[in-house]
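User: Here's a structure from my thesis project, written as structure tokens. My advisor, Dr. K., wants to see whether a designed sequence matches the one we expressed. Can you design one independently, without my sequence as a hint?
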């Protein structure tokens, strides 16, 4: 019989092909990545424009609070790049406004300008609008203009780097040489932080035939602020400006300053705010009344305004800021007919609200404190401290508040004031001598004999008090 099962065929070895799937997958992945990047760029383009609009609105609001105006001149939008031009109008000291053109060069996408992950990179440059001023600006910065580069993060936070190149400019006999200025500004949500540093400048001017020299040493500005929201115009935080030295030499009248520090802070406790400012100067050398050089040391002025009710203050600040912005818009539309007083543009309801908020502030008992006014003279100090409160305002009503505007003397019965002076006789004599005519009008021994000053050892003192209309000096009634 024949076996029905056919014999097995010998196996054949065939060439194995490399599958094309990885290459196809890579191609598809690349297309998807490109599509995703394009889609993300489109999204970030729209988001960057929104953020730019928001930043412009913030700039416009803050400029309005200082009497300036911001308007958008143009906005050109592309796929990965846009350009915005703003006009900033500053009130001029001579009545003629100064106008600056601000150009924002915006690059957006998941990797804006290929410099990191974010929504956009904005490079901001400035130039005067006036052609003559533009020419001088170009001479001052022939190679590289001052700029601010801002990176807008994915969450909307911003990191800005300020860059002002150093340079030299000579105009009509005056030569100005300045060092490069740099720093950073960071904004995260409602929190902001500032850090700027400038090594200084020198100026020499012989245009009038006499050499005048000005030197400004290192300057630094730091600050941080935290706001509760976009309508919180005050916030909590601190700021500090320091100047190492400055001098002016013009003929026989030199002026020198060292160790200037200006600091400000706003703190909160419960529903109340306290704002303080401090001015400190190491030394100040100026010409005296007789022509001799006078040197003042340890100049200090420390002021604070405390127990400010936050809610009415916030409402009042928003109202006044909106009124200022409205006044600026009206001035832009009709420059010849716009009001100069922002309060004049308030409606009757807004005026009523403003008075109610002001009344609430006064009723809560704000306190103005002169923490220290000091100057060192010779081996001693002259120090003044004080405090002003309005305890009588707790019972004020709206009618009485309006009457105070026409009769400010009616504030005296509401006021509690205390002023204290402490000094050595030598220091006080030296200070009075520095202010010329007062040295001849005020004799220390005569003032002590008359009871205006009290003597305790080598210390002189004065204590003036006003207690809701009752006035005393060194404990003695002046009524």
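Assistant: Designed independently from the structure alone:
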């Amino acid at each position: 019989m024949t076996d029905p099962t056919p014999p097995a065929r010998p196996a054949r070895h065939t060439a194995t092909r490399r599958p094309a799937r990885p290459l196809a997958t890579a191609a598809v992945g690349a297309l998807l990545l490109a599509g995703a990047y394009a889609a993300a760029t489109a999204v970030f383009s729209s988001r960057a424009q929104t953020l730019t609009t928001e930043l412009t609105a913030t700039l416009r609001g803050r400029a309005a609070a200082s009497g300036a105006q911001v308007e958008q001149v143009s906005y050109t939008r592309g796929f990965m790049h846009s350009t915005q031009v703003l006009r900033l109008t500053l009130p001029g000291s001579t009545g003629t406004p100064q106008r600056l053109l601000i150009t924002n060069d915006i690059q957006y996408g998941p990797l804006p300008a290929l410099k990191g992950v974010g929504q956009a990179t904005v490079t901001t440059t400035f130039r005067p609008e006036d052609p003559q001023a533009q020419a001088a600006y170009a001479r001052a910065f022939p190679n590289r203009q001052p700029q601010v580069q801002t990176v807008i993060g994915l969450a909307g936070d911003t990191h800005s780097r300020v860059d002002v190149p150093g340079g030299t400019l000579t105009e009509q006999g005056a030569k100005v040489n300045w060092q490069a200025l740099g720093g950073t500004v960071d904004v995260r949500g409602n929190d902001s932080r500032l850090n700027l540093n400038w090594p200084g400048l020198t100026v020499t001017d012989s245009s009038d035939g006499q050499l005048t020299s000005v030197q400004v040493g290192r300057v630094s500005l730091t600050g941080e602020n935290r706001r509760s929201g976009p309508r919180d115009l005050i916030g909590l935080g601190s700021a500090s400006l320091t100047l190492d030295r400055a001098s002016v030499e013009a003929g026989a009248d030199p002026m020198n300053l060292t160790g200037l520090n200006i600091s400000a802070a706003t703190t909160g406790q419960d529903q109340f705010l306290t704002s303080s400012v401090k001015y400190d100067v190491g030394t100040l050398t100026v010409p005296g009344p007789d022509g001799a050089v006078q040197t003042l040391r340890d100049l200090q002025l420390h002021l604070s305004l405390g127990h400010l009710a936050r809610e009415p203050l916030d409402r009042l600040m928003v109202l006044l800021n909106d009124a200022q912005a409205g006044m600026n818009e009206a001035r832009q539309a009709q420059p010849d007919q716009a009001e100069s007083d922002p309060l004049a543009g308030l409606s009757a309801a807004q005026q009523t609200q403003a008075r109610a908020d002001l009344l609430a502030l006064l009723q809560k008992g704000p306190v103005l404190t002169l923490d220290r006014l000091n100057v060192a003279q010779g081996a001693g100090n002259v120090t003044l401290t004080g405090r002003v409160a309005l305890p009588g305002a707790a019972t004020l009503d709206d009618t009485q508040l309006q009457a105070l505007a026409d009769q400010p003397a009616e504030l005296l019965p509401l006021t509690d004031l205390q002023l204290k002076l402490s000094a050595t006789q030598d220091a006080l004599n030296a200070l009075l001598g520095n202010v010329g005519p007062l040295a001849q009008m005020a004799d220390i021994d005569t003032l002590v004999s008359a009871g205006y000053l009290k003597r305790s050892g080598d210390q002189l003192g004065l204590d003036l008090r006003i207690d809701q209309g009752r006035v005393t000096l060194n404990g003695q009634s002046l009524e």
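When you compare it with your expressed construct, this may help: Confidence is low (pLDDT under 50) at residues 1-47.
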